[in-house]
Write a structure and sequence with these properties.
disordered N terminus, mainly alpha, rod-shaped, two-stranded antiparallel ribbon, 34 helices, about 800 residues, two-stranded antiparallel sheet
Length: about 800
């Protein structure tokens, strides 16, 4: 492969400017001329003496072997440089033939190439193999990337509702991390660990990826214009927050990320008219800054009698505004290309100045990602160089000002002032930087050229200083302060770390909910929620983000029918979760027509652990079942609601129905959730015991029945008639028992006799008869028609048992 002559490097090494000056010096030209001037090293003098030297003629008849002018820092030598040819394309026969016509130097070069042909062939084959493997790897990587992109497109949200639905799982994962912190019972002022913050950062990136997917889908499918603008704005804000607070380490520099962010979300051509008004022109009294947005260089000679050849030259327009903005945005190579494209149209003086500006820009160290010692050394060296260049330019401009005043060339002066603006940007002049770009461009420019070592957590003071400079500039120039767009104002507040201001300026529930929640969980914003559960009937005053979250939950529930997700958002607020959940479901509960809707709401409450609201819904559901005479489900839901009073009432109703129709209803099967409540309901416990007693009597298990009656008689939590029922059942046990041992001992029998006498006095007429006939009808016994006969029968049975008890003793 033929080797081309190496050009001098455009990047400066980290050496003191006294040893090397990559941008040269500014000296006054010996005479006023339109020809090009270049700085060359004076071989006749020692040290680094430089001066302005006239470049060789540009006539087409100039000898090709004439020594050409060299860029700065290139040493002129007398050694002849030859261009070698590609050995792989030349045969030995061809080499022999051509060598006869070569000069001695060329012959030596060709001979050296022939001697190295064997090793070159081997190296070429090896390199070819490496390139082939690399190409295969590239193809595989491209295939994987394409597959990944295709998968992302297929899973991209296709509507606002899908965006909301896909956002909630991310929200839930961040909240899960936050709940782990709650379990530790640490105070909310406790610093969040770097691991937890890193995990939150991963989920925040999922938000950003989701928004990018949706935005890409809208672009590819001609989505609604307003929707695309909305998602674009959300992306700008979200991506900025991710780069500042959820990416990398806190001590990493932010300048590289913000350069990428600005150029990605705000291409220079998208700056609005309002954004450009502020720096479109400068005060005429400011001699340093005169703006020429589009200069027709070829048509500004200042002479009305110029010849036709001059007027027919191609017009070159120089967009100084775009060049400045490219510098501010960190697009240094683009700015350099624009300058090089128009440099030949300038006067010799301006060409020399501009070349030094280009050299200075090219020698700038790359933007840092962290503050390592190597970068700091490079930055300090370059800072010294740019200071020297600035001083030399100022002296050069002063030295030619007298000549320009005598024979003014307005265009040259204005161009030089533009060059001065570019130099001041590169030198980090904050006042100039604040004037020549939008707020965001100026902020990035100040980071690049003034404080590139600022970290992610140190943007506030710089943003505040820039805001003051721009406000001061507007006052000095007598201009009204241009209002920032909502998105820019939001980003401004974010850079100031004014989160309340940022979230209030961009009044969007989706952004405020998800971004605010992530910032709170990451410890960037104060929580403002003490985690104390308040009453379901009272609301606590907490962080505004949670109140917005509640409003967002209501909107997606009613507008998008996303009730489960809405309850999930509300559940993130420890203090007001129960109150807000009740308020959200209140209208739906009032309008519910069937139990299936209530079952669905109850399931949502269980999913998000709304205990108080769950009890409320269970009670409402139980009442619905009770109205439908579905006592089984009614009992279960009263028990789940921990409503003991309603369970007692339900048990009494079941016992009274037994007295009316003789049918004893089945009790519910206890579960872990309902057992505690049922056991606390004394009336339902009595119902359960009596059902068990009936089973013992039916199966002739008299001893078990007697023991159970003894327990039930201690506290009869049932309708009064069951005093009689239990006495009749006691008689049945004594009559049916064939065991020789005494079932009721003396004291127990005497207690039954006292209860019989007391009950006889308390009960109204025919109660004993009704109860006896109800119980005995189940065993096909004879029916008795008056109370006295029933009481007499019970008394005789108890007296006989008492005699037996006395005999046993």
């Amino acid at each position: 492969m033929g080797k081309s002559k190496k050009k001098s490097s455009s990047k400066a090494h980290a050496v003191p400017p006294s040893k090397q000056n990559p941008v040269g010096t500014f000296d006054q030209a010996p005479s006023s001329s339109s020809e090009e001037f270049e700085q060359v090293e004076n071989n006749n003098n020692s040290d680094d003496t430089t001066n302005w030297t006239k470049v060789g003629s540009t006539d087409s008849s100039t000898d090709d072997n004439q020594q050409q002018s060299l860029p700065p820092n290139t040493t002129t030598t007398t050694t002849t440089t030859t261009t070698t040819t590609d050995i792989t394309d030349i045969t030995d026969t061809h080499n022999t033939t051509t060598n006869e016509n070569k000069t001695p130097t060329e012959t030596i070069t060709t001979t050296q190439q022939s001697n190295e042909s064997t090793s070159s062939d081997s190296e070429t084959d090896q390199q070819s193999s490496i390139n082939k493997n690399m190409n295969n790897e590239d193809e595989e990587n491209k295939a994987l990337i394409y597959e990944r992109i295709s998968a992302l497109r297929e899973t991209a949200p296709r509507s606002r509702k899908e965006l909301y639905q896909r956002s909630y799982p991310i929200f839930a994962k961040i909240e899960h991390l936050n709940n782990k912190k709650k379990v530790t019972q640490l105070p909310y002022t406790y610093s969040i660990s770097s691991i937890r913050k890193s995990n939150i950062g991963k989920y925040v990136k999922e938000y950003t990826s989701l928004l990018f997917q949706y935005f890409e889908w809208l672009n590819q499918n001609d989505g609604d214009k307003d929707e695309k603008a909305y998602i674009c704005d959300i992306l700008r804000i979200w991506d900025l927050c991710e780069r500042l607070h959820f990416s990398g380490n806190e001590d990493d520099t932010i300048v590289s990320d913000l350069v990428d962010w600005l150029n990605l979300h705000w291409p220079s051509e998208e700056a609005s008219t309002n954004d450009l008004k502020r720096f479109h022109s400068f005060d005429s009294d400011d001699e340093e800054l005169v703006i020429v947005d589009h200069d027709d260089i070829s048509n500004r000679s200042g002479d009305d009698d110029q010849d036709e050849s001059s007027t027919s030259e191609t017009k070159i327009f120089v967009d100084w505004m775009l060049i400045r903005r490219n510098l501010l945005r960190g697009n240094i190579s683009e700015a350099i290309q624009m300058l090089k494209a128009c440099i030949d149209t300038f006067s010799s003086d301006n060409q020399g100045c501009l070349r030094r500006i280009i050299k200075l820009a090219e020698s700038m160290p790359p933007l840092p990602h962290n503050n390592n010692n190597d970068y700091l050394t490079q930055w300090q060296t370059w800072t010294l160089i740019r200071t020297q260049v600035s001083d030399e330019f100022e002296g050069f401009s002063s030295s030619i000002s007298t000549t320009e005043q005598q024979d003014p060339e307005l265009n040259d002066r204005r161009i030089r002032k533009e060059i001065n603006v570019l130099l001041k940007i590169l030198c980090g002049d904050e006042k100039v930087i604040s004037k020549v770009g939008t707020f965001l461009e100026s902020f990035v420019g100040m980071l690049i050229y003034c404080e590139p070592s600022r970290t992610r957590t140190e943007t506030a003071t710089l943003a505040e200083r820039l805001g003051d400079l721009q406000q001061q500039s507007s006052v000095e120039q007598g201009h009204e302060e241009q209002k920032e767009s909502i998105v820019v104002a939001t980003c401004h507040s974010i850079l100031l770390c004014d989160w309340d201001g940022a979230l209030s300026i961009y009044d969007d529930y989706y952004l405020q909910t998800h971004l605010g929640h992530a910032l709170i969980c990451a410890g960037v914003m104060p929580k403002g929620d003490e985690g104390v559960l308040t009453s379901i009937d009272h609301e606590a005053c907490i962080n505004p983000v949670y109140h917005i979250m509640n409003t967002y939950a209501k909107s997606i529930a009613h507008e998008q029918n996303m009730w489960d997700e809405a309850m999930g958002y509300i559940s993130a607020c420890s203090s007001n979760r129960e109150f807000w959940a009740k308020e959200l479901l209140k209208e739906r509960i009032d309008s519910v027509q069937n139990t299936s809707d209530l079952d669905q709401m109850l399931q949502i409450c269980e999913n998000h652990h709304f205990l108080t609201l769950k009890k409320l819904l269970c009670k409402i559901l139980a009442e619905k079942y009770e109205e439908q005479d579905n006592l089984q489900d009614a009992t279960i839901n009263y028990a789940r609601a921990r409503d003991i009073a309603s369970l007692d009432k339900l048990a009494d109703k079941a016992l009274k129905r037994y007295l009316d129709n003789g049918v004893l209803e089945e009790i519910v099967t206890e579960t872990n959730e309902t057992r505690d409540t049922i056991e606390k309901s004394t009336h339902y416990k009595f119902l359960s015991q009596y059902q068990q007693l009936c089973g013992f009597l039916k199966n002739n298990q008299y001893d078990e029945g007697a023991n159970l009656i003894k327990q039930m008689l201690i506290s009869i939590n049932a309708p009064a008639e069951f005093q009689v029922i239990l006495l009749i059942d006691s008689m049945s046990i004594l009559e049916g028992s064939t065991n020789k041992h005494v079932i009721f001992n003396e004291s127990e029998t005497l207690d039954l006799m006292r209860r019989l006498q007391q009950t006889r006095n308390d009960m109204h007429e025919n109660v004993f008869t009704q109860c006896y006939n109800r119980v005995r009808s189940m065993s096909n016994s004879n029916i008795i028609n008056n109370d006295d006969d029933v009481i007499s029968k019970i008394s005789q049975t108890l007296a006989f048992n008492l005699a037996n008890a006395l005999l046993v003793v």
